[in-house]
Amino acid sequence: IKAEEERVSKIRNMMSVISEQATVDYDETAETMSKRIKELQDYVIDDSFMEFKDETEQMKSKILEFLNSALLKRQAYEKEQADLKAEKERQEMMKLQREWAGYSQVI
To answer: Do 71 and 37 contact (CB within 8 A), yes or no?
Structure first.
């Protein structure tokens, strides 16, 4: 019975490595998320998972679906932030150009 408990515990520990990927930090970059997705995609669920193989494959699939959805949202957010930054810089440049034009007329 102890050997069986240890076997199941070992499999559950391997499963927890996968389930831990189901979180996303609010400040996690799209690049970091992409790397995590790739690592999870590459994680092999083989026969060592025994009777938990199907359950683990389903869990991995759901987590990948979640992470890919979160990645799309993060990419959109990062693009929006980059666009806002570019617009702010453009506005600042226009302001400086107007100020410079005003100064050059005084001189």
So the answer is: yes
Q: What is the pLDDT of residues 61-99, one digit of tens each?
A: 999 999 999 999 999 999 999 999 999 999 999 999 988
The H-assigned helical ranges of the chain are 2-19, 30-42, 53-106
Q: Enter the pTM of the model.
A: 0.79
Q: State the residue for tokens 């359950």.
A: 55
Helix, strand, coil percentages in the chain from 3-state DSSP, rounded to 5: 90, 0, 10
- DSSP state, 24? -
CA distance 74 to 20: 19
> Using CB atoms within 10 A of its CB, is residue 66 exposed (0-12), middle (13-18) or buried (19+)?
middle
Contact 37, 61 (CB under 8 A): no
